[in-house]
Specification:
Beta Polymerase, domain 2, five-stranded mixed beta sheet, 4 helices, ribosomal large subunit binding, Iojap/RsfS/C7orf30, Ribosomal silencing factor RsfS
Length: 117
């Protein structure tokens, strides 16, 4: 499966379980380890686990090998390693603290107010 198709499939899998603030960063020019980093947020331990699980299941269904899944025990930050794409699903406080987007050359996420607030 091509990189663009993998990234799109991961985003679809995250959207299926209502992930928030999905960011796709192309980092191949920064590291030889992987080509893309995808970061998303879930509101609770349960949702973070469900998001990561859905990504793993959907990728396996499409023939993309899931090399490892780390952090499922606690559900604050779960990493899904797809080889050339790494997916980080985090609770908002953890995501803000580690600021992976900014670390990897993207923009620091800015919270968007929900409608009606």
């Amino acid at each position: 499966m091509e990189l663009a198709a993998i990234k799109a499939a991961v985003v679809d899998a995250l959207e299926d379980v209502k992930a928030k603030d999905i960011v796709v960063l192309d980092v191949g020019h920064l590291t030889p380890l992987w080509d893309a980093l995808i970061v998303a947020s879930g509101d609770s331990n349960r949702q973070v686990k469900a998001l990561a699980n859905n990504v793993a299941v959907k990728m396996k269904e499409q023939g993309v090998p899931v090399l490892s899944v780390e952090g499922e025990q606690y559900g604050e930050w779960v990493l899904v390693d797809l080889g050339n794409v790494v997916v980080h699903v985090m609770q908002p406080a953890v995501r803000q603290y580690y600021s992976l987007e900014q670390l990897w050359g993207g923009q620091k996420p800015t919270p968007m107010p929900r409608q009606g607030e």
